[in-house]
Amino acid sequence: MIDDRLVEHLKLMNLTEYESRTYLALVAKGTATVKEIRELAGIPYSREYDILESLERRGYVVVQPGRPRRYRAVDPREVLSRELEIRARAVEELIKKLAPIYSSHGDEVTFDEVIWMLKGRENIHERLIKMLSSAEREVLILGMKPVTTRAIARALRDARDRGVEVRALGEFDDDTRSLFEEIGVEYRYYPHDHSRFVLVDERELILASEDPANYVFALYNRNPGCIKLYRNYFHHVWKETRKI
Q1: Ordered alpha helix ranges (H), 58-164
Q2: CA 208, CA 224: separation in Å to the nearest integer?
Q3: Running DSSP on this structure, what letter comes out for residue 144?
Q4: Which pLDDT tens digit goes with each residue over 13-61?
Q5: What is the CATH number of domain 78-240?
Q6: Inter-axis angle of helices 4-11 and 17-29, to 10 degrees?
Q7: What is the CA radius of gyration of the chain?
Q8: Could you give the CA distance from residue 203 to residue 222 in angstroms, rounded to a whole number?
Q9: Which of 33, 67, 134, 207 is buried most, with the most CB atoms less than 10 Å from its CB?
């Protein structure tokens, strides 16, 4: 029985109705022949090979040689992690390109707006300290080295003292790891290959470039949809990453 709700979720990954049903059928079945897939997924006889070829090209299924040929679904954790990262990068690129254009209209930018640029290390550090100081439940850190000043380290320590859960993913140096252990921050090794961010209480996000030369530029974001995307990405990676 194919779950229609999961079909709708997969369609958000730009899969068609039949592609979504076929992938779900293979996840449920393990491996299957074309005939078995057609019967379980309820797809037309004339479309079965086109659908499977499309899913194979996109990395959702693999073919096992033999007679008859059998198909197997790629692990959902692998294929959907890739889809999530693609979308996170797309959102990041859109914000990076569109925010300066939006700001160029000359309208006054205030902290009541959902997205704007922060320029200069001092401005970035000041905003980060305010975020950490206002944290009530959760601080998520990916890649960005948070302890670049004593004030940031103090704000991080104060957040933990208030009972805020702080988690970090990245390749942190010895001093940062020592501080994390001292104040009770749980951290895991993650060799990320995209931008760094700090997210507070599902309401504030600072997103900075991976290029150290561009660290004087960052985006401050309060857009709920974007924040949810990055929070989901963090928690997904956290579950799949080994504990140090």
Answers
A1: 76-103, 121-134, 150-161
A2: 18
A3: S
A4: 889 999 999 999 999 988 898 888 888 888 888 888 899 999 999 999 9
A5: 3.30.870.10
A6: 120
A7: 22
A8: 6
A9: 207
3-state percent helix, strand, coil for the chain, nearest multiple of 5: 50, 20, 30
Question: Under 8 Å CB-to-CB from 94, ≥6 apart: which residues?
Answer: none
pLDDT tens digit sequence for 145-170: 555 677 888 888 899 999 999 999 88
Distance from C-alpha of 95 to C-alpha of 82, rounded to nearest angstrom: 20
Total count of residues recorded for the chain: 244
- Find, among 141, 205, 195, 148, the residue nearest to 170 by Cα: 141
List, for residues 53-93, the tens digit of each pLDDT value: 999 999 999 998 888 889 999 999 888 888 888 888 888 88
In whole angstroms, give the CA distance from residue 183 to residue 48.
56
Residues of the chain with CATH 3.30.870.10: 78-240
More confident residue, 191 or 2: 2
Third-level CATH fold of 4-74 = Arc Repressor Mutant, subunit A (1.10.10)
Question: Is this structure's pTM higher than 0.85?
Answer: no
The pLDDT value recorded for residue 117 is 76
Higher confidence at residue 8 or residue 104? 8
d(CA 48, CA 53): 9
Residue 150 is encoded by which pair of tokens? 């004593």
